[in-house]
Amino acid sequence: MSADGCGGLPPIGCLPIQITARFNNPFDRKCLEDQNSDSQAYNQKLEKLLTTLQGTLPGTRIVYVDVYETVIDMVNNPQKYGFTETNRGCCGTGFEEVAGLCNSITPTCGLASQFLFWDCIPSE
């Protein structure tokens, strides 16, 4: 029997770009609970759907991967994982830079391992 994994959403309201879009004050950065609630609702529906889908595909195993709980634990308990910064990225200002804007000429934080996010829109 093969197994395929399907990942849920992370706490979208904790992504640096989402926080930047909502708050103008760079010193008042916190997760957006309304967006995190949306992520949780989506994940619950996805997990239920995967269970239903599993029943229609004999010989296949579908595994739901709970990304939300892992990331929210990192945000809420950063010291447990060695992080000191969880609401902005290491690249540039950490508020807006993403992908191609994070390059050899863009300044980065001093200790990337202390940042939960590399840029403001992390991908898996």
Automatic annotation (TrEMBL):
It holds the Pfam family Lipase_GDSL. It comes from the Eukaryota. InterPro entries: GDSL (IPR001087), GDSL_lipolytic_enzyme (IPR050592), SGNH_hydro_sf (IPR036514). GO terms for molecular function: hydrolase activity, acting on ester bonds. Belongs to the 'GDSL' lipolytic enzyme family. This is GDSL esterase/lipase. It comes from Dipteronia sinensis. The lineage of its organism: Eukaryota, Viridiplantae, Streptophyta, Embryophyta, Tracheophyta.
